[in-house]
Amino acid sequence: MSVVDAIKAFTEGASLRSIVLDAALNAAVNYGGGKALDKLVDVAAPAIGMVGHKVAAKVLKPATLERQITRHHVYPIFLGGPKKGILAGLSSNMQTEFHNLLYENLIRELGLPRRMRTASAKEWEAVLRKIPGGREQMLRILIETSQQFDQRLGGDVLTSALLEQLETMGLLSD
Description:
Elements: H1 3-11, H2 16-30, H3 37-59, E1 69-73, E2 87-91, H4 92-110, H5 121-130, H6 134-153, H7 157-168
Antiparallel strand pairs: 1-2
């Protein structure tokens, strides 16, 4: 987020906390090669959250304080990813945006009904088994969605982490 974007966001009602978190995420993604994300999630985010709440509670409405950093599984569990898989730090808004884009791409490209947006991991597994090459198609769509999202953010953190996860699981073909 540029300084101009931050000022514009603040004048439009964004909280100081959310602007600081966006700036920290941007720095971690773009200048740390993504390696700073774990430290940001584990150490800086709670500290920023406490300071942000104390400052913003006096200045801004509490409803503007809802953004926080979440741990995002780069290979989503509902699609068969490991529970102890590689995680990336995303704001809750960014995580929601990513999952919306992923659901949209999966449903469109695999020709699935809209109700799959709320399907369980077992339902996804069953559906993917019924589609010829379903798992491979899903992985392709997941990689492409990560690439789309990374391009929007101006980096390649999610895609790199996903490819590393898939490689360690033996799911990438040479």
